[in-house]
Specification:
- Helix content is 51%, strand content 20%.
- The protein has 183 residues and is an alpha+beta fold.
Length: 183
């Protein structure tokens, strides 16, 4: 009887505690269904995508893309170096950073490093060096296509053309490639 008396005396508190327990239980179930399970499903999907799994994950696709880019770069480099046209590539500031063997032969440079940077200007006839340098530097800053003529120190008359590729939004130089032709 004591128990029934105690229950009767504390029924309001018991109701509050019981209601709170039921509310916690229902809230936990709600959070599990509406929050935890969807997050777990998303996490499992992300985890699946970030693991190598035979070609279907994002990591596998990124690795394939990286391999393809490496192959394309190697093919482009080989095409650049083996081309019979006298080609050069410049940094955004206009310095030569890559030349092919044909250009080295035309300029009679025994080492391709002698043409790097602005050193190629030393292979232009001395009385034309300053004018060619100014035309080239001004053209790199302002033009999309830069063309000119010069005489090399070895006596060859040449024309050059460089294509300056710019970012259409910022106008920053992305790349500069050019060709030198013997007249």
């Amino acid at each position: 009887m004591e128990v029934l008396k105690w229950i009767n005396e504390h029924r309001e508190a018991i109701a509050w505690y019981s209601g709170g327990a039921v509310a916690v239980y229902k809230t936990g179930g709600f959070l599990r269904v509406k929050v935890w399970l969807p997050l777990k499903k998303k996490w499992d999907n992300i985890s699946y995508q970030l693991n190598n799994n035979g070609g279907k994950s994002l990591l596998d696709l990124i690795q394939k893309i990286d391999k393809n880019i490496t192959q394309i770069k190697a093919a482009q480099d080989a095409e650049f170096q083996l081309n019979s046209d006298c080609k050069f590539e410049c940094a955004p500031d206009g310095r030569w950073i890559r030349v092919n063997d044909s250009l080295c032969k035309l300029f009679e440079a025994t080492d391709r490093q002698r043409l790097m940077g602005y050193s190629w200007i030393n292979f232009v006839k001395s009385e034309q060096q300053e004018a060619v340098r100014e035309h080239y530097e001004n053209g790199v800053e302002t033009d999309d296509v830069l063309a000119g003529d010069c005489t090399l120190a070895n006596g060859y008359e040449c024309s050059y053309i460089a294509y300056v590729k710019r970012n259409s939004e910022t106008n920053e130089i992305i790349s500069i490639f050019g060709i030198v032709n013997k007249k």
